Amino acid sequence: MAAEIDFNDPHPGYPSLSLILIVEDEQEILDILSAYVERSGLRSIQAKDGRKALELHLSHAPDLVLLDVQLPQIDGWRVLSEIRHRGETPVIMLTAMDQDVDKLMGLRTGADDYIVKPFNPAEVVARIQAVLRRSGNNKYSDGKIVRVSDFLINLETYEVNVCVKEEKVALSVTLTEFKLLVYLARNPRRVVSRSELLEACLPESDALERTVDSHIYKLRKKIEATGIADVLVSVRGVGYRLLGAE
Fold it and tell me: I need a labelling partner for 165 at 20 to 30 A (CA). Which of 47, 57, 157, 226 fits?
């Protein structure tokens, strides 16, 4: 029997896929770090200058920022200062400068850790995971935000945003569509039957299973209108599945 959806339930079984913003102006290093981060089961977005880093931090709300100091346009210290002004996103500084005064400056400005180049990418990933554990995975640990694939779902404000080509696009949904999306997002990649969705999201209605089909159809059209296709898929004769990140 499916449980009625509870927006206050943090759902500890949900696999939170932390998003890491990697800010590095050297393409080779950026590629290596991104590969190691994603191989560890995390997700990543990249920026090669400080201005882009601040734009992505604002639009994507990453769980952690891996931040180089020497950057074009806006240097890492100023980026760190602005991130701290905005909130408590964990930041690990990544730099070739190994003087103690530089480390102290980073830590005093609010950095959570400091890694000096050259580095072992596996160690960088280990340090990222350690900071994420210490921070409780930041704002996602309280269950108010659900993130899967390109969706960012706020359970308090009932807002849904979709990340499309590094831009955050608001998705206007009805309450029923919101409930269906949340339930599928909390069960990523699992095929959920129509009857389960009906019981979990419309428990007090007299709706039939084909009503679920109608709501899912409209929700899928809204998602596809943002430019994202083949994320909410139907499994013939069974139900629906939301494809999360691998």
Answer: 157
